[in-house]
Amino acid sequence: MSDLYKVAIVGSGPAGLSAAARAAALGMSHVLLEKTDHLSDTIFKYQKGKHVMATPSNLVLRSDFDFAAGKRETILGVWDEQAAGQGVNVKMNAEVAEVTGDKGDFQLKLKSGETVRAEAIVLAIGTQGNPNKLRCPGADSPMIQYQLDDPGEYYDEHITVVGSGDAGIENALGLAADDAQRNVVTILNRGDSFARAKKDNVALLEEAERDGRIIVRRETQPAEVKEGELVLDTRDGQETIRCDRIIARTGSQPPRGFVEAMGIEFTGEDRGAFPKLSPVFETTKPGIHVIGALAGYPLIKHCMNQGYDVIEFLGGNLDLKPADEPILAEKFANLPGNHDVDHWLGVYGDNVSILADLSPLQLRELMLDSRCHAYEPGEVIFRRNEPGSSMFAIAQGSVAVEVNPNDPSVTVPIGEGEIFGEVGLISGRRRGATIRAAEPVVALELSRTAALKLIATSPGAARAVTRISIERQLLQMFGSGLTKQDVAPLVDSAKVVDVRAGQVIIEEGAEDKDIFIIRRGSMIVEKNIGGRQVFLSYLPAGSYVGEMAAIDGSKRTATVKAAIKAEVIRLPGEGFVKLLDEHPTLRDTALKEMAKRREINAFIESRKDDFEGAVDMYSETAQFLVDQGLGEATDVLLIDETLCIGCDNCEKACADAHEGLSRLDREAGRTYAHLHVPTSCRHCEHPHCMADCPPNAIHRGPDGEVFIDETCIGCGNCQRNCPYDVIRMDPKPPKKPSFLQWLLFGKGPGPGEASYAWRKKHGDPEEPKQAIKCDMCSGIEGGPACVRACPTGAAIRVSPDKFLTYTKLTEDVE
């Protein structure tokens, strides 16, 4: 029978090494079990030459091993030396196959057949050995690899990196680091921001993108892997690119079966859930502790601190506080009652629904990236139309939402445990209402980055945010005095579905009865007339469709498909009908809307022979406009070529309204028939330009305008992210002489935009560049200058739902 160790530490990553070093320092009987023939397989598997960061910088390192930012090879060398010098008892090639027994006498059976006994176990095995596989056709292709050891081995290849976390970004940077390799490197991000990655890595990636060394594709994911090709699902539809190799860095999951076999429970059934842990890292199986990435806390410095702490706990030092205790104590200092850190962690963890699935370690990490607030009754938390993309969670008390801007007394309550501000988080729009504390309130404010990271890494938080947003969207859309309890059954049965551009969600003639709410993106409605698909209407985000078949049981009367990549909420038809039956006012409203749509369909059927040509022309024009960005626009400048006389008054007026820099290029852009879409901002519902703005200089105004404020640093991210080429980078121009000075004395370049030559001659060559784009003449009396200056009425600004309507079609053909 083998010796009985005080503790067996499984895994020699940063957490396990630190634990073993602390045990050696205390003279504690221990063994460190490593399944490979080298220490710290986690770091060992990093790509060669990788710079390892030591974040967060304000966190004290508590470990008997040294660690500072540096190259992978240097760090591994230091740890090898210190493990030998400090007497760490390491057993290599010792992979644990099974754990039996109980606290005081565990048996760890190794794959070699040997058994190791220990009073306690510290699991520090991480998750890297269990990577998430790609889930698309061709996912078993030999082109795909889930590890990158040495980026320098690859030359003259088209390589696509899938994954926007730190590992994916670092792999992409490594593959593009040497120009002599001549690799074409593309990185895919299914979202529009890099919420999972460290700021320094994101900055390096954006620099590489600016330099043209890496192609960054946002809102894009693999659709199919083919030999030498990769089919992509993009925001505008599918696209195929050349691809010789795919590096998939899509995260990893805990080895759940192995861990659960020990008797350890997880926080939920989701693949991404983590083990339940006590404040001393003990699992639901007494005597077994979990630290490091398996605990949901993967930063190296955190892992090493946990390794130190868990051995101290096992040694009887239960008064030891975590290394981040002083930082959190400072964050909680302004909260009422003079309570300690443990008290407030308990309040937030127990009371806030979106934090319910977080372990104590994950909760502490989230708090480091968030702000804690206390509000007195009546105190304003934020006001309508203020900029802001953070999300709030109520730990104590309740708030009142002022739903009527003309009458602050009309409010809707949001209670303890709930969130608010999620609209600004998701859309980037200004605050939609004023919110005050209804009673003493303790709240958590999550920055946009922290909130997105929480949603991306905690399945429970993602579900909670999704449920709340669905519930509020249903109440906002259907109204009629409905309560949360009224719509609860619908919310329970709702499914959020991603829809690729061009994908059909409702097919004409089908017999399904589901209803769809457009949560993001937009849809177009078509009907088959004479064997041709004819455009009927456009449905922006916030619309719902499909209720006709649900209410009267008829077949689908039209086809609905995504104009761009979209997100919809799918509701079962029977649940919607039951809601209507229970609320007659809502049913009457739905029946009136349904009657209008049936009149449209009947009119088209009766007149299809009379305006066949007009139907084709309008349908093609509508598709052209959708292709030009109206599918996600909120305001578009259109020019009627039959009225335009080419005077360029629109450009000159734009320049005169914006310090001599025009936001409009009339001649550029695309034309179909008589309709021209010049190069001018569309003010997208979900602006791509906002996705990676380091100083958060891009905002949406109260009238929907997307504008860039004076904090712009000229990085150019917005210009690269805009799919419509409507943003340019230009030095801030010198002040132009007035019109009278030009007219009377010949000073300056005259009306309109100053020429580049004039601006270069009179400007400061050291002046940094700034991003220039249309702001809809926000704050200028009379509205957009381009429209006001047009002498013929050729220039108009419209929202897509007003242009792409059946009314326009009937006006053309009647």
Automatic annotation (TrEMBL):
GO terms for molecular function: 4 iron, 4 sulfur cluster binding; metal ion binding. It comes from the Bacteria. The keyword Iron-sulfur applies. Keywords: 4Fe-4S, Electron transport, Iron, Iron-sulfur, Metal-binding, Transport. InterPro entries: 4Fe4S_Fe-S-bd, 4Fe4S_Fe_S_CS, cNMP-bd_dom, cNMP-bd_dom_sf, FAD/NAD-bd_sf, RmlC-like_jellyroll, RnfB_subfamily. Pfam families: cNMP_binding, Fer4_11, Pyr_redox_3. PANTHER family: DIMETHYLSULFOXIDE REDUCTASE CHAIN B, OXIDOREDUCTASE. This is Oxidoreductase. It comes from Erythrobacter litoralis.
